[in-house]
Amino acid sequence: MKIYLDNYQKEAVYIKENNVLVVAAPGSGKTTVIINRVNHLVTNLKVKLGNIIVITFTRAAADNMRNRYKIFLIEKLHLFLEHSMVCFIRFF
């Protein structure tokens, strides 16, 4: 599943600042931005997950974000494995 970010969301994901506060209206994509920001920090900038803090206002929001990040990682791993299998098959 490909996620498309608008220019403001991309700016929030790839900003060079250490600390980022994401404030926006309900349904505007805050969780998507935060998930992509964490992924960018871990994958591209090699920040350890233990050095990242994400704070939400409710336990339900935290659970939602945690579940969505797990799904994001599973999809990413699935795509990686598919690509690896294609490379493996092409190699032989």
From TrEMBL:
Name of this chain's protein = ATP-dependent DNA helicase, UvrD/REP family protein
Does Disulfide bond count among this protein's keywords?
Answer: no
Q: Name one Pfam family in it.
A: UvrD-helicase
**What's a BP term from Gene Ontology annotated to this protein?**
recombinational repair
Q: Name one GO molecular function term.
A: 3'-5' DNA helicase activity
Q: Does the keyword Metal-binding apply?
A: no
Q: Which Gene3D superfamilies match?
A: P-loop containing nucleotide triphosphate hydrolases
Keywords attached to this Swiss-Prot or TrEMBL record, sorted alphabetically, are: ATP-binding, Helicase, Hydrolase, Nucleotide-binding
* Cellular component GO terms, alphabetical: cytosol; DNA helicase complex
Taxonomically, the superkingdom here is: Bacteria
